[in-house]
């Protein structure tokens, strides 16, 4: 077969795209008044562009320069928690007290609520500003909570971002693994993924953190503290090269660390961050943001002297990373979103070639075609992965996809039937016969509307004995 193209042919971005990306980060560095800024774009698991700007000629950071990534650390903690869940060592509905008896004041908060920032916990721990003070001030988990008001809101009722909550999740990882969470992270996640330049402490080459004077072009160095128990909330250092590997993992999974199905579960929106902003959502340790027609997932981060952002578009298999070494100024979230948009609009993803089924099972082929839920016509299609797609005839764009399971059933992947089980109930003539019907929970689909095929007994509520008639 000739005339086919490979995605490898498009691995390198066009010069016009590269210049547009460089222009975007140059504007961010200049207008944001940051000492340096580095950006990267990852497409289909490979880094296709990196660029940087610096206030010092000849000293621009590259993809191996470490920056502090702040709350992007929380995505790593969430992966550790989900690993424990998948191993059966905990359940996300478990109360915190089941795994961490102290602090008793928040023992009934669930692990899921901590992951989704719906625990009601205060945003910050007690004591002085944890990001600029030694972690030794809070040596134990109980030392993280305010002594007079550990909960700011009713448990489970609303979104309230909590650094303290992720510090407690890190303590749960330590308790169940019997080792410091940072060591667990290195052994179970970073090393398998080849992320050798991600660490709790900075390793050369790394950027220094700076504050920029609000009213003058002047700099002030920021302190770098070991935040101790609060480290799971935001202490990691990393590079654009390593975060490109992390983005690829968050998109596709790696069975040595976490499956693609579990990662897909993590990025399902579970709570809206602000009622007045319906475009911002949170999953299990994952931030989601609607950017025009594009849904992005990832996380942002900030620590004294640093800001960071990772955004990923699942549909376009694109990720963008922006790291900067200023406490405030550059809008890295908007910059990273723009890097995704620029690449996607200028060089849209080349879709995979259509391929037919390697074999066509007659019993599955017999299921295709029209089905009826009552009087509403649907069509069932058989996909190349042996999955099914069920859609209304008058709105084929809103079909529900079903994944084939080993037991002969299918599981809904999206839409109204997401997570529900589709079963084929054979009729007297076999799985494709006229009286075969489909069941999805209490929904029954028949080959003819309301029992015209004679299978009236399967229609919930029955069918009028006189059948269809005129007025």
Automatic annotation (TrEMBL):
List the molecular function annotations (GO) for this entry.
Answer: hydrolase activity
Q: Which InterPro entries match?
A: AmpC-like, Beta-lactam-related, Beta-lactam/transpept-like, DUF7586
The scientific name of the source species is Streptomyces palmae
Segments crossing the lipid bilayer: none
Q: Which UniProt keywords apply?
A: Hydrolase
Protein name (database record): Class A beta-lactamase-related serine hydrolase
Annotated Beta-lactamase-related domain residues: 30-344
Q: Give start and end of each DUF7586 domain.
A: 360-447
């Amino acid at each position: 077969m000739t005339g086919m193209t490979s995605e490898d042919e498009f691995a390198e971005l066009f010069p016009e795209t590269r210049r547009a990306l460089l222009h975007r980060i140059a504007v961010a560095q200049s207008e944001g008044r940051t000492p340096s800024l580095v950006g990267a774009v990852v497409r289909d698991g490979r880094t296709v562009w990196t660029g940087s700007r610096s206030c010092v000629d000849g000293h621009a950071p590259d993809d191996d320069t470490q920056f502090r990534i702040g709350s992007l650390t929380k995505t790593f903690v969430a992966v550790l928690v989900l690993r424990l869940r998948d191993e059966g060592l905990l359940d996300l509905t478990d109360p915190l007290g089941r795994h961490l008896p102290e602090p008793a004041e928040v023992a009934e908060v669930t692990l899921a609520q901590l992951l989704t920032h719906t625990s009601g916990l205060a945003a910050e721990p007690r004591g002085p500003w944890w990001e600029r003070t030694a972690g030794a001030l809070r040596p134990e988990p109980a030392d993280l909570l305010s002594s007079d008001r550990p909960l700011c809101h009713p448990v489970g009722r609303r979104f309230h971002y909590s650094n303290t909550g992720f510090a407690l999740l890190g303590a749960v990882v330590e308790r169940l693994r019997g080792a410091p969470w940072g060591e667990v992270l290195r052994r179970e996640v970073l090393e398998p993924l080849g992320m050798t330049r991600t660490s709790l402490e900075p390793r050369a080459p790394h950027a220094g953190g700076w504050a920029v004077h609000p009213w003058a072009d002047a700099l002030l160095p920021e302190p770098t503290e070991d935040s101790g128990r609060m480290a799971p909330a935001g202490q990691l250092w990393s590079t654009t090269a390593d975060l490109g590997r992390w983005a690829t993992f968050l998109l596709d999974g790696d069975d040595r660390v976490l499956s693609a199905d579990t990662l897909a579960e993590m990025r399902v929106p579970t709570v809206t961050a602000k009622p007045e902003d319906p475009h911002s959502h949170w999953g299990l340790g994952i931030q989601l943001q609607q950017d025009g027609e594009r849904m992005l997932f990832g996380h942002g981060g900030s620590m004294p002297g640093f800001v960071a952002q990772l955004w990923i578009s699942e549909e376009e298999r694109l990720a963008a990373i922006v790291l900067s070494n200023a406490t405030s100024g550059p809008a890295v979230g908007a910059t990273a979103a723009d890097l995704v948009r620029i690449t996607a609009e200028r060089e849209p993803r080349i879709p995979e070639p259509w391929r037919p089924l390697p074999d066509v099972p007659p019993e599955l082929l017999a299921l295709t075609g029209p089905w009826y839920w009552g009087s509403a016509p649907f069509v069932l299609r058989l996909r190349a992965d042996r999955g099914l797609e069920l859609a209304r005839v008058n709105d084929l764009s809103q079909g529900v996809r079903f994944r084939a399971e080993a037991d002969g059933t299918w599981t809904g992947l999206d839409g109204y039937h997401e997570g529900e089980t589709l079963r084929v109930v054979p009729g007297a003539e076999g799985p494709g016969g006229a009286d075969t019907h489909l069941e999805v929970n209490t929904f029954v689909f028949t080959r003819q509307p309301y029992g015209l095929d004679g299978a009236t007994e399967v229609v919930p509520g029955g069918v009028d004995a006189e059948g269809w008639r005129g007025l």
